[in-house]
Specification:
13 helices
Amino acid sequence: MTKARRSQVPPSLDPLRRGRFQRLLAEEAHKLELRNEHRAARFLSFVAVLGLAVAVFVALRVDLVLGSILAAIAAVCGAYYLLVVPRYLAGRDRVGRIRWLNVTIEVTVPMLISVVDVLMMGGEYALTSTPPLLTFVAVVLAGLRMRRGLCVYAGVVAAAEYGVLYWFASSHIPSAVLAARPVLSWEFAAIHGLFLAVAGVLAAIVAHAGAVQTRQGAVQVFEKERLGDLFGEYVSPKVLGQVQSGDLALYGERRRVTILLCDIRRFTPLAFAHRPEEVVGYLNRYFSVACEAVGRHGGMVNKFIGDGLLAVFGAPEPMANHALAAARAAVDIAQGTGEVPRPDGEPTRTG
C-alpha cells in the first residue's frame, strides 16, 4: 500500500479491521486494473484491425511496400493484444509489468509508423500524416490504467520520441522546404512535444480522480459490511438494508411506538426442575412461534430477556396502527404458544 492509499483507511478501525480494509481495497484495485487492461486490449485489437484495413488501402492506392509494412505492424499488434495480453493477465496475479510494456508499445508504434513513412514517403509526409496524431490517443489511453506515474511516463516518452522523429524526419527534408513551411519548423515540433507531455499530465489528473473514486467506493463497501457485522445478528435484513442505504437515522429520533412485552408464566420453577437441554429446546420452540407472530404483524423483536421477549411496533418502519398491530400480535402469541408443550406437561401460558 502506498502512503496515499493508507490515508483512506478509517482511523477508528482496530488493527484487525484495518488489515481487512486494506486487503479489500487492494482486491478492488486489482480487479479494476485487470478490467481496464482487458478493456484497453480489446479497444487496441479493434484499432489494429482498422489499421490493417488502412494498410491494405495504402498498399493498393499509394505504395505496395509501405502498405505491406504497415499491414505487418498492424497484424503483429493485433495478435499481441488479442492473444498474448489476455493470456498473460489470466495467468498472473499482478498486472504491473504488462501495464508498463503496453503503454510503451502504444506510444512507440505510431512513432515507428512515422519512421517507416520517413523512409518510404519522405520526412515532410511523415510529419504531416496521421500517425503522430495517434500518439495523443495512446497517451490518453494510459489514463485508463488509473496510475499517475504511467500517464506521466507516457507523455514524457511520447514527447521524447517525437523529438527524435522530428530530428530524423527533418534530415530528409530540404532546407528550403523547412524554411518555407512553418508547420515543419523546430518551434512547431517543440510545441507538439510540449502538448504530448501536457496530455500525459492531464491523463494523470483524470487517472488520480478515478483512483480516488474507486477507493471511496471501497470504503463504502467496507462500511456496509461493517454495519452488517454489527447489526446483522440483531435486526431483520430489511432494517439492515435501511441502515446501509442511509434511510434510517442512526443518531436517533423521537417517535410514538407500541412496545410488546411477553414472558412465560411459571417459568422459573420449570427451569429448576428440568435439565438445561430440555429448557433450551422449549425456549427455542416458544420464541420461534412468538417471533413469527411479531413479524407477521409488522413488529421487530428488539431483545430476548431470559424467557421474555420485547418487540417494537412502529419503528424503525413507520406504522399507522401500531397499537392495534401489537394487540393482534399478542393474541397470536398467546394462542400460538399455547400449543407449545412444556417439559412438565402443563399448558404454556404467556403473560
